[in-house]
Amino acid sequence: MSGADDDIQRSRSPRPALSPSRAADFKQCPLLYRFRAIDRLPEPPSTAQLRGSVVHAALEQLYGLPAAERVPETAGALVAPAWEQVVAAEPGLVGELEAEQQTQLLDEARALLSGYYRLEDPTRFDPQSCEQRIEVELADGTLLRGIIDRIDVAPTGELRVVDYKTGKAPPEARALAEFKAMFQMKFYAVALLRSRGVLPTRLRLIYLADGQLLDYSPDEDELMRFEKTLIAIWRAIQSAGATGDFRPRPSRLCDWCPHHSHCPVFGGSPPPYPGWPQHPDEGGADAVLHRADPAA
Description:
- By secondary structure, this protein is an alpha+beta fold.
- It is built from 8 helices and 5 strands.
- The protein has a single domain, classed as Lambda Exonuclease, Chain A (Alpha-Beta Complex), CATH 3.90.320.
- A hairpin with a 5-residue loop joins strand 1 and strand 2.
- Helix 7 crosses helix 8.
């Protein structure tokens, strides 16, 4: 669940933490991280983001039903209550959406859910959890925080981490999108390994818009190296936070950045640096929206 896992938000532990979405932002562009995690500049939601939130909410509701009831007709019927759930959580996000746009958005959500049944049969298994919040402190004190779309546990104990992708990356950004998605999944694998002491045997990305499954099996040595990468990213964020030195890093993904007016690369000026937050903020829009950027 991309973007639904803010790194600076209130939770049981009132400390800034690292989330997969914000870690990826910092790797992509430190200034983008600052805009989203510290300045919290507004980003009007796109219809793709809203559609992704509706699909995620519908799938969560679907798996809350008995297995025999999780048929395609039920999934389609859950779109309307899922929409109401999204609107209730953040009513200001959809205020400017016209009726025709809303109808199209819900029709597209139903189409994505219908296609889901060509990839998995939800009547044949019961997930251990959906939209699972996870928080774990690493040995050096780095705090990881996120929300996992789905966790499956086999009768023999094997653990599978599942993430739904509802966006469709442009061809020129497809490789970057897959890299960012796998970064997110390895983040969750490290968090689960440290919190449960169990190595996830499979990381599954379900691309609903493309009708594809991508399965990957990490090994423990790989995740230990990735854990070191996460620690290094958090240290770099803290170092930049102490000075306010979040520099832009131009790339092909700049085309999809909504903050050109504040970015020096495009002739803009960042707002005055507010300083590293002493207390986490609420999750804001990212706590609801599943971002559909080129790497979603």
